[in-house]
Known about the structure:
Number of domains: 2
Radius of gyration: 21 Å
CATH superfamily of the largest domain: Type I PLP-dependent aspartate aminotransferase-like (Major domain)
Helix content: 25-40%
CATH architecture of the largest domain: 3-Layer(aba) Sandwich
Bound molecules: ligand F0G
CATH topology of the largest domain: Aspartate Aminotransferase, domain 2
Low-confidence stretches: none
Order of helices and strands: HEHHEHEHEHEHEHHEEHHHEHHEEHEHEE
CATH class of the largest domain: Alpha Beta
Shape: globular
Amino acid sequence: MSFxxxxxxxxxxxxxxxxxxxxxxxxxxNAIKEAGYNTFLLKSEDVYIDLLTDSGTxxxxxxxxAGMMMGDEAYAGSKNYYYLESNVRKYYGYxxxxxxxxxxxxxxxxxxxxxxxxxxxxxxxxxxxxxxxQELAGGTFVDVIIDEAHDPQSEHPFKxxxxxxxxxxxxxxxxxxxxxxxxxxxTVNMAGGQPVSMKNIKEVxxxxxxxxxxxxxxxxxAMENAYYIQQREEGYSQKTxxxxxxxxxxxxxxATMSGKKDLLVNIGGFVxxxxxxLFEELxxxxxxxxxxxxYGGLAGRDMEAMARGMEEAVLDEHISSRIRQVAYLGNLxxxxxxxxxxxxxxxxxxxxxxxxxxxxxxxxxxxxxLAANIYINSGVRGMERGIVSAGRNKETGEEYFPKLELxxxxxxxxxxxxxxxxxxxxxxxxxxxxxxxAKGLKMVYEPKYLRFFQALFEEM
Length: 460
Ligand code: F0G
């Protein structure tokens, strides 16, 4: 007998299950038509395997559920807040914590506190809500990610890195005083879940501080990023993900966080900072938008679940099985020669819709059409990450035409089995077989903000 690669498996077993409704292809054709070919508008009941997002869709552990019963639902000074604060200090190292209902709540507060009208905010590729909050606060986002990030075929191990030359050019052009701060998203969602190296964040931190610019980490998936550093960067293979995470965060002055990803909860987020004056401002602001600074729009039980999720999520055995499960799907799709972003991302596999549907021009929304067709084929729900998500230039009103035209198949944490992923891969392969018959879409309703959530389409 010849040995294959040693198998891996999840470091947990299943205690509770949620039955899924099975649908026919006819049901799904009607459902997607009714949803205007937008997978965000499908009823979750009509979805078999839901790979729309890894956000708030994670399975909590018995330890977290037990913590839900320990909620201290006081309006002020809940003990769960203090526990969360101590864990944020322990695992990320920031001194001060302001909880928020989710990541965009944190982005809103920080953007409003730090951005003066007319300032620039460089970052390693945009994220939809992050950029919008920066713009609403009067800032202009500037993409300073390395060029490799825009190339689905580039095998660069840290495709999320900031290009120091692009960042420095911007500083020279507008002056450090006109830059509100620089954001580092880790991993970079829109680039395909690609990581940032320790060396890169260190260099960005040095350059930024030399010019008096603050570094803000989007820590939403920073634990997954830390795992990639352990696996790929010299000098880190013997360190734990927890050690790497803390060092990584030490090169930033503040963080915004969507706890709905890394932290294994269904709701929650925070903004964490080291600067006392900034903390004071955030503490003032949170009362207006979220709630008192010791709950920030969350119940005590939610803060407890997030604090406990942090302890479980940072464990090497958890992160490694999480990321290897995503790679498992990627490898299956590779066997079917499906065009994808490589290397595989930490939270999702990104299908390259440009290559998949070469005959559909970008202004007919090929990724939107692909997500709809996968749903029709099998009830698997993914999400468009291309021209629809990119939206329009806030000055000219023109549509952005991003290089990456992708469908994201996002894997929730601790939710689906390998057998589910086998079904997903088979379905994508069938849709690929039939790719020549696919039609483009036309947009028949376009919302003003974050249009991808609610836009409606018809088949061409
Ligand atoms: N930053 C990143 C990198 C994200 O991926 C998200 C959310 C946010 C910030 C905003 O956090 O949703 O808690 O308000 N991403 C989700 C996704 C929506 O599906 O990728 P939020």
